Amino acid sequence: MSVTLALPSKGRLKEKTLFLLQEAGYKVQLPADKRNYRARVSNEPDIDILFLSASEIAYELGSGTVDLGITGEDLLRETIAHPEKCTEIKLPLGFGYADVVVAVPDIWYDVYNMADLDDIAADFRQQHGRCLRIATKYWRLTQKFFSQKHGIQVYRIVESAGATEGAPAAGSADIIVDITSTGATLTANGLRMLDDGIILKSQTCLVASCLHGMHRKIDQICTRIKKALCFLERNSPST
Amino acid sequence: MKPALSLLDRRPYPILAACKIHEVKAAAEAAFNYFSKNGLTVSEFSILQPAEPFLNMAGEDLRRRIFMTTSDNGDSLCLRPEFTIPVCLKHIASGHTTPQHYAYGGEVFRQSCDANSSFYQAGIEEFGAANETEADARSLRYATTMLRHIAPTRDITILIGDHAIFAAMLAALKLPDGWQKKMRRCFGNNKQLRTLLSELSRPMQSPSLPHTVSKLITHGHVQALAEFIEEQMLNTGICPSAGRTPQDIAARLIEKQAIADLHLDSVVLAALEDFLSINVSLDKAEQTLNYFAARHDLALEDVITLFATRIKDIDNRGLDLTELRYNAAFGRPLDYYTGFVYEIRNSGHKLQVLAGGGRYDRLLTMLGASIPIPAVGFSIWLDQL
Fold first, then answer.
1. CB A202 within 8 A of CB A58
2. CB nearest A143 (choices: B56, B60, B238)
3. Tell me, what's the ipTM?
4. Read out DSSP for B54-113?
5. What is the pTM of this model?
């Protein structure tokens, strides 16, 4: 029985993932045509490799069209309605670290935590004739965090496809929920994370879809990748 | 309850048994029969409504609980989750004079975790009545008689609350404005209010601010602080007039500083606890409130007088005061409820809300009415009868 493994289709994530597979002993044969998004593993003909964007990988894992995938936990929790029901995080891979955070303009010296933001949101309509606007591509995570965890109800989400950090300066939103790894982009855009504003600490993970049950082949791949990861960690120059 | 409110209400929505269509139909027929008996014209509302007003009033969280779709030109629409907002929008658009009654009934739609997603409601809203307490009493009288008309044998309890008394008590306790606002937001949600009270009982930690800012705050220079903030805003490319203004931020910084060293003391806490525990039949409510005010030396004459007038109006309309309960902690946690609120429940162990209503003087203005229009109304959950 063959296993479909979905990998990030570009950038550093693609490089790191391919390196990890190579360390795990999988000989991935990249297609001659770079525009082709499929690949084979020469020493494991049962594995089909698909190159997809990271958020598509999350979606396909949720719907069960791929068996295994490498994607960020943030995308998994954002894209799938019940990630714990239809997917299982097999292994955090130790790269692609990023936090999904609530950030406000740094100049809001009076806003340091979610309780402050609750006050601001409650008064916003009365003072400005509209709701507080949050720019984000993380609808689901934002709603859960604001409404369910902190009881903040009156705000509106402004969907942002990219360059979310620019939204407050552009005037299209008041605050943002976005991903950050070093915080440098936030600082560069005059934004500051709230003290209790971490919604999710995310990293790149090896994820299995549970919709078709787990078969041995999937476990085998996970084990081999895990071993390779341990080996790399032991031999990394920093330790 | 004003339905928009119940969308936000954290209480679990009573789970319906398999919806028996003929029984709901009988209840709906009885409701319309009540309207015609009382000379009320029934207003019709489209099942598909613009989604924006609902989302703007109740917030983004509502999105998960309503059924949304998009029109062919891209506008967001939803299946009506309640009637109050459509009634308000219709009134504003029609330019009708006040006072005006609206009677309505029909299906409403909400996503729920059990199988049911459509419910039946009927209710009456009254806009622009000159006499506030009489309109409140009239609304309560309509709700109870209509409910009894539909379900004559049902054993019910009627719960009365008042946002205005709670607000006046906070003001009389001379709590900082920011705290009063926080507490008013939690009113009606006991758990949230308790959490807030315990947080406010502890001293707060103040964050470290840039030196210039903290110096200006310590000296209380609002204007200088606002100017400094404006300059910083312009430097970082944030428009000082698009959202929060430098004045907003400066004022709140000073306000925070003023209460930085404060925490709720035991005297105030005792008064709050004492108030929230008031739970008496309505005939004893005025006396109980007066006694409470005297015991804690609080000036509450104005709100208590208004409350007493309303009780008299309710009495005059033939409702038995001993059967109505005033619970000082009962309220509806939505920011457009301004005063009198009530709920009719099934007597018995399981909390089952049959009808809810109240005064919402702010909602029409929030929805775009050019002048303030006082409003009071209720909805009955027909499926529950």
1. no
2. B60
3. 0.80
4. HHHHH-GGGGGGS-EEE-TTS-EEEE-S-SHHHHHHHHHHHT--SSEEEEEEEEEE---S
5. 0.83
